[in-house]
Write a structure and sequence with these properties.
The complex is a heterodimer of chains A (about 120) and B (about 900). With about 120 residues, chain A is an alpha+beta fold. Chain A is built from four helices and three strands. In chain A, strands 1-3-2 form a three-stranded antiparallel β-sheet. In chain A, helix 1 packs across helix 2, helix 1 crosses helix 3 and helix 1 crosses helix 4. Chain B is of the alpha+beta class and about 900 residues long. Chain B is about 50% helix and about 15% strand. In chain B, the strands form three sheets. In chain B, strands 13, 14, 15, 16, 17, 18, 19 and 20 form an eight-stranded mixed β-sheet that branches. In chain B, strands 2-3-8-5-7-6 form a six-stranded mixed beta barrel. Chain B has a four-stranded antiparallel β-sheet with strand order 12-21-11-22. In chain B, helix 6 runs antiparallel to helix 12. The chains are: A alpha+beta (about 120), B alpha+beta (about 900). At the A-B interface, helix 1, helix 2, helix 3 and strand 3 of A face helix 1, helix 2 and helix 4 of B.
Chain lengths: ~120, ~900
């Protein structure tokens, strides 16, 4: 049924949402205040265009982060003098990013050990 | 923290209905414009550049949906939408809504009402500091089957010194004449050891409490009074401390006023309404000498050492008891097996209502459950009609979870509306309901609609909403879309198995309500028979007014020390009251003479020794005696069968005389003439009393029991202190109490005159316990009957819906409408008859359990059984008639198109 397929697609996006939020935070951390389009482009650039991003899905994530107090936003003008909303990492957001980063590093390290381990190492 | 922040931001948006769609639209536009510019720079044509930008952005609809969801609280928004829709649906079928809401209102209202009583009595701890440390000490002598015989003073001293308790208090009490304030009054008092308030942990609002170390052997002559008495009798006098108080002619001085709202823990209603506390060591006059046994029945409470559990305290106490038994073998014969039990104080206060209340809560919970099942049934019957709507919604893309949420929110709305109605009814009738609860239920004053009661109501509301909402939601879960749409609405019909479950349910309901109704009718008939029993005395136009004489600690201050002194008072009171307007007859007796209006404490129980009949001392029969003046028998129309009535020549100095009732004559002088026999009512000193007359039996002791042996003694020879003045005539109940008071107090201004009641009221009150259980049962029975009717209505409506097509064919083929009616009714009757048969069988068993409660009607009274069964079948017929008529009036064309 059509409804069910739509449901599955949405679920996939949900899974990505967690990491997408982290990418947004890191991008803002790295490059300072950016507008939505800028964030999207930078994420694509940093990921080496490996990530196929539906750019629009960024906006609900931005709103969520703003609700959580991790980022703040205000209207400003873009390099082409276009009215755009600029997002800034807050102090709270920086803390979140650091904590999440530690967790990722740890997870990656653990998983790395699992992948690198050889049977003879365990005797 | 972050989660909370996000939730708050969203909730704020939701509450303010703030939607910032404009911001997203603007951002989206800017985004796509920037991407387009970049694409242009990359060399695309303008049209292609924009197309690629839009593609890269993704589905704008989904994005804005996700954005909007993040803005507010989508679940809540959906819920609101669902609720609005549900309300619309309910408005469209008001009949269904009314029945469902009423059913739930009944269930939730009743359950909440009972819970509020449970909450106040059982769940709340006693309103004193560290209530867990408070215990009651219960002295038992199981060996001679004497329980709770009371603590003796030496035992109290032993326990005080045992180290197990912080404090142990002895408690006695009763009522007393308070004079010296505005008007003589009869007051409930407690006589306690001086450590009582230190034990309870409550300090007076004004002044100070008793000194816990006070060693005075007798009364300390200090009094604490309740806030109520302070305001009522002393006009809230701020200088009350140190003032004198005359209680039964003895002088006490007020040392403190207890806080407003303070109630003594107490085991009886009277004790809980105590207004004066007196301190005494119970070891000097007027108390008897402090010996271990025979004991004066004094209650005892204690406060355990902090941190000591009841079990640990009990085992230390057991050791103490057995060492005391060895030390005083004469006082504690091994045969008696003396023990002291510790019972939590709260348990001792509310213990006797725990079981009935729990039972009541269970019963009312059952009613609620049956109600839920009924509403579920109705919802199912309706779901049949809505199958098409639901199928279409599903076909249009509604997710199943979403549909179930929709159905559940509909049932929730029903549940909440029902609860609101139930609580509103409860709130409106709370005074009436509170009046229905017998006064003996402890802590009645604490019953209220507090937060825990409301929380309970909320919990059962949600629970019942889920319970009866699950059935239709469960069915919607397994709808086969294609089939339903093709067959237009028949896809939601339950399987054969499910409809069998529904039938069994209805049969059970019928059986249950039959049992309840039969029980209620049996009780009702007993009540009616009791009410109309031949009393043996005439209660019409009779009033009684009480005037109790003082019993001072110092006999020298007693103006009515001898029977002759008191006889002067009695004669004068009789003479004066007789002059009151409307009064035809006047008599005086003690409280035991008030027919059906006295408590057990008012009885005079005497050992009966008959002249010439030898009986071992421990087998002497005990009889109830009543003290009256000669006019009593004529006033109450109790006829004299043999011998003579007392007269004014029977006085203290002449031969002591007695009259007996027929039952007494039959029991103790069978086949002999009792008149002229001599009896002795005192084991200690022989003083013979002559039986001079026999009167007819009267139901003065018990309505149900016809023949309780009774002795009537002459008030002029006996000094009764608890006087009841009886008046007969065309009395104006509004002014008589005041007039009698004036007359009595013109003889002795120190006598309180109170408790004026008509004898008919007294009789009605004596039935109040029975009336309460009858009303409760009748309420349950009516509810069950109503629910059974609703249940069968639901099932039959369902069946008619299911068979619409078949009925259409029958009609098209020329079936008579009457025969359609018959088909449907037969279906319903089958259920009702099976239910009635099962119910009759169950009632035959159940009614035997209540044989003790019945009067004048056998537990298997065939008339009751048949009439109730017939009533139930009529209810079932009526309930089936509505859907049956609908089936009969079906237009064959519509019915056929229905499929």
């Amino acid at each position: 049924l059509e409804t069910q397929r739509a449901y599955k697609v949405k679920q996939k996006a949900d899974v990505k949402q967690g990491t997408l939020a982290l990418m947004v935070l890191r991008t803002l951390d790295l490059l300072g205040p950016l507008h939505g389009y800028g964030v999207a482009r930078r994420i694509e650039q940093i990921s080496g265009d490996l990530l196929r991003l539906n750019q629009g899905t960024l906006y609900p994530v931005l709103l969520k982060l703003e609700h959580e107090g991790a980022i703040a936003s205000e209207w400003g003008s873009s390099e082409n003098n276009r009215r755009a909303r600029f997002y800034t990492l807050t102090r709270e957001g920086r803390k979140v990013l650091q904590a999440e980063r530690r967790e990722w590093d740890q997870t990656a390290a653990i998983m790395g050990r699992f992948f690198d381990v050889k049977a003879e190492d365990l005797i | 923290m972050r989660v909370l922040k996000r939730f708050l931001a969203r909730a704020a948006n939701f509450a303010a209905r703030r939607r910032n769609d404009e911001r997203l639209r603007e951002e989206m536009e800017a985004h796509i414009a920037m991407q387009t510019e970049e694409n242009l720079r990359a060399g695309m044509t303008p049209v292609e550049a924009r197309r690629q930008a839009v593609l890269k952005f993704g589905a704008a609809g989904a994005v804005s949906e996700g954005y909007q969801a993040e803005q507010g609280l989508p679940l809540l928004e959906e819920l609101l939408g669902d609720s609005r829709f549900a309300l619309r649906m309910l408005r469209r079928s008001p009949g269904f809504a009314a029945i469902a809401i009423l059913t739930i209102a009944l269930g939730i209202g009743a359950t909440t009402a009972i819970f509020s009583v449970v909450d106040a009595t059982l769940l709340h701890s006693l309103p004193y500091p560290q209530p867990r440390e408070l215990v009651k000490l219960v002295d038992d002598l199981p060996g001679i089957s004497a329980l709770d015989v009371g603590l003796s003073v030496p035992e109290w001293r032993d326990l005080q010194g045992s180290g197990i308790f912080q404090y142990v208090s002895l408690i006695g009490g009763g009522s007393v004449n308070l004079t010296g304030s505005s008007q003589p009054q009869r007051i409930q008092f407690l006589n306690v050891t001086p450590n009582y308030f230190a034990l309870i942990g409550v300090k007076p609002e004004l002044g100070h409490g008793f000194n816990p170390q006070d060693q005075t052997p007798g009364f300390t002559l200090e009094a604490l009074i309740s806030d109520g008495l302070w305001k009522r009798a002393f006009g809230a006098d701020p200088h009350i401390l140190g003032k004198n108080l005359r209680l039964d002619n003895d002088l006490y001085h007020v040392i403190g006023v207890m806080p407003a709202g303070f109630h003594d823990p107490g085991w009886t209603t009277a004790q809980r309404n105590t207004e004066i506390w007196l301190a005494s060591g119970f070891a000097a006059a007027p108390a008897p000498p402090p010996v271990r046994s025979p004991r004066v029945p004094l209650e005892a409470i204690a406060r355990l050492q902090p941190g000591l559990s009841i079990a640990a305290a009990q085992s230390r106490l057991d050791a103490l008891v057995s060492s005391l038994q060895k030390q005083y073998p004469d006082d504690y014969p091994a045969k008696a097996r003396w023990t002291v039990r510790l019972v939590p104080l709260k348990e001792s206060v509310v213990g006797n209502v725990r079981e009935p209340l729990a039972l009541l809560l269970a019963a009312v919970g059952l009613v609620l459950l049956i109600g839920c099942a009924n509403v579920a049934n109705l919802l199912l019957a309706r779901a049949g009609a809505r199958a098409r709507e639901i199928a279409i919604r599903q076909a249009m893309g509604a997710a199943r979870g979403r549909l179930i949420r929709q159905l559940l929110s509909e049932s929730m709305i029903l549940s909440f509306l029902g609860a609101a109605a139930g609580l509103a009814i409860l709130f409106g009738t709370r005074r009436l309901i509170l009046r229905m609860i017998p006064e003996s239920v402890p802590r009645l004053n604490d019953i209220s609609m507090n937060w825990s009661v409301l929380l309970f109501a909320l919990a059962i509301t949600i629970a019942s909403g889920i319970i009866f909402g699950l059935a239709p939601a469960w069915q919607a879960r397994q709808v086969n879309l294609v089939q339903v749409l093709r067959r237009e609405g028949r896809g939601l019909l339950g399987s054969a198995e499910k409809s069998r479950a529904r039938r069994i349910f209805v049969v059970t309901e019928f059986a249950l309500s039959l049992v309840l109704t039969i029980a209620a009718v049996l009780l009702l008939r007993s009540f009616w028979d009791l009410y109309n029993v031949r009393l043996g005395f005439n209660s019409r136009h009779v009033m009684s007014v009480q005037a109790w004489l003082p019993i001072p600690n110092d006999p020298q201050t007693d103006p009515y020390r001898t029977a002759s002194q008191e006889a002067v008072l009695l004669h004068e009171v009789l003479r004066r009251v007789r002059t009151l307007p409307g009064v035809k007859d006047v008599a005086v007796g003690d409280m035991a003479a008030l027919p059906l209006g006295h408590g057990r404490n008012d009885l005079n129980r005497f050992p009966l020794i008959r002249e010439g009949v030898e009986a071992p001392l421990n087998q002497v029969p005990v009889v109830d005696a009543v003290m009256v003046t000669p006019e009593y028998f004529q006033l109450l129309d109790i006829s004299v069968l043999r011998g003579r009535i007392f007269d004014n020549r029977d006085i203290e100095t002449t031969q002591s005389v007695a009259m007996i009732n027929e039952a007494m004559a039959r029991a103790y002088w069978p086949n002999e003439d009792a008149v002229g026999r001599r009896i002795n009512l005192n084991l200690a000193k022989p003083k013979w009393t002559t039986v001079i007359g026999i009167v007819a039996d009267a139901h003065t002791e018990s309505l149900a029991d016809t023949s309780v042996p009774q002795i009537y003694l002459c008030a002029y020879q006996r000094r009764p202190k608890d006087l009841a003045i009886f008046l007969r005539g065309e009395l104006d109940a509004a002014v008589i109490p005041e007039q009698v008071r004036e007359q009595v107090q013109s003889v002795d201004s120190q006598l309180p005159v109170f408790g004026a009641r008509t004898l008919d009221d007294v009789l009605a009150d004596s039935l109040s316990g029975r009336r309460f259980s009858m009303e409760i049962l009748a309420g349950f029975a009516l509810t069950a009957l109503l629910l059974a009717g609703l249940g069968i209505y639901g099932v039959i409506s369902f069946v008619v819906g299911q068979r619409t097509h078949e009925i259409g064919i029958r009609l098209a083929l020329g079936a008579q409408r009457a025969s359609i009616l018959k088909i449907v009714l037969r279906e319903g009757m089958r259920l009702a008859l099976v239910g009635a048969a099962v119910g009759l069988a169950a009632a035959l068993i159940a009614s035997h359990w209540m044989a003790g409660q019945l009067y004048g009607v056998r537990p298997t009274d065939p008339l009751t059984f048949l009439a109730v069964a017939a009533l139930l079948i009529v209810v079932a017929l009526l309930a089936c008639f509505i859907p049956a008529c609908r089936a009969m009036r079906l237009n064959p064309l519509t019915a056929l198109r229905h499929d």
